[in-house]
Input
Amino acid sequence: MPAAARCFLAALLAPCALALIARADVLVLANGDHLQGRLVARQAGQIVWESPVLGLVTAPEAQATVIPDSTALPPQGSATVTTTTTHRPTAADTAAAKANRKTTIESGIALQSGRSDRADFDLRVETTYQQRRNSLRALARYRYSKADGSVTTDRTEAGFRWRRELDPRWFGQTNTSYLSAKAKGIDHNLEQNVGLGHRFLKTDRANASLGAGLTGQYREIGDAETGQSLFGEVFQDFTLKLSPRLDFGEDFSAQYSPSGRGIRNLPGGQVQLIDTSVANYKLTLNAFLRGKLSDTLSLSLRYEYEFDNTFVSRGAKTEQRITTTLGCTF
Output
């Protein structure tokens, strides 16, 4: 890495490191335990506290007191001795840790017979985890459709996204994704994104972010055809809690590469790379409306849109799906 880049990165991260070191406030619990760290938020009668050891901890505001670092120390020359009790994780701390980790499994099956025979299967597994300034999300999905004896969809997806808060509004992210879409002729498609984002809306009910970055793509088509591209990418996501049991969310990304590429589907399921003057860009939109049936069961309605201009056939450029799935969260 060039020296100038290292200096820029150090200047960017130094304020964050100094802020963590400088803040040494104390949370005093009702049982007398002391937790060093910093106050994250006060909401709905609860104190959300960030501990370097336990991560995010939630305590009732009426049973805890926040003491700033400057007042936590005894006056100079005072003979007062302060005893700090080592905090042992309680049931409330364990519950808070579980609240920061969530796994959802969704599945949907549709069968149709009569004038036409059709079968659709959709399985989706998503795990999210929040610890201090890190937000992790892992996603795996498989979709399969067959109509009148012909496979129309055979698609496997996987992804891992890591976001690191640089301050309350800015974050850095890496996003790794994998795709195999046999019906479209894509054997393997691997993408790696590195970007910077800004959370311009953050409330108890709504979150919205906007960012940009670079994405490298490796795509394998057919037996030997491969291709690499470098994209500029912009991304956006938004979540809104409409009610205690109803959530809405959407995310959008746009990728563009100056290197052109064309993909043509041939009879028999074969594909080929053709004229490189075809503009290389892709748009992706995902939206969902999810209602909680119970503490663990949910019903989701999802809309997904994907436009890949590198496919020459108009029918292959665009994919739109509306799916309904039953989910279990634990």
Q: What stands out?
A: Residues 3-22 form the longest helix (20 residues). The first strand starts at residue 25 and ends at 29.
